[in-house]
Amino acid sequence: xxxxxxxxxxLVLLAGAIVFLDQLTKSWVRNTLAHGEVWMPWAWxxxxxxxxxxxxxxxAFGMFQGAGQVFTVxxxxxxxxxxxYYPRVPAGDWSLRLALGMQLGGAVGNLIDRLQIGHVTDFxxxxxxxxxxxxxxxxxxxxxxxxxGVWLQERKLKKRSCAEDRSASNPDAVEDSTTL
Length: 180
Known about the structure:
The chain is mainly alpha-helical. The protein has helices at residues 2-32, 68-85, 94-117, 134-169, 171-179; strands at 38-39, 49-56, 120-126.
């Protein structure tokens, strides 16, 4: 039992912080800006970044508009899978633990919007890139960290495998190096 509490503590803290920040920023946008209204705190950022109150009934990048119910169910399934799988992740696999925490926080943040108001509130607008929010950013960064972690793990395994192959093909070299 103690193992599960310790394993879930990091997940709950990270995902909870992301959900809190996501919901706080979305609430501020909904209470401050009319739908479609743009706010630019610094004029020099005007062509590059702005805050705009936008609604999204689809997924990232505005794809699959109107399919919110499908993504509500999908977010529930993904969240349940992360919660179920997380304690099985080795304690030393920091990249997978971080990635899963970020993805859970993002999924729950957008799920709350879908369940409460029927759509996701987006507000971060950068250049011509589709409007997004903190939860979307968390999911995207979580995927990037996951890919980076997999790449680093594969690289480490490949180095270890090459070292084992060299020592197996030339056992005298290992003996010589240990006697020095």
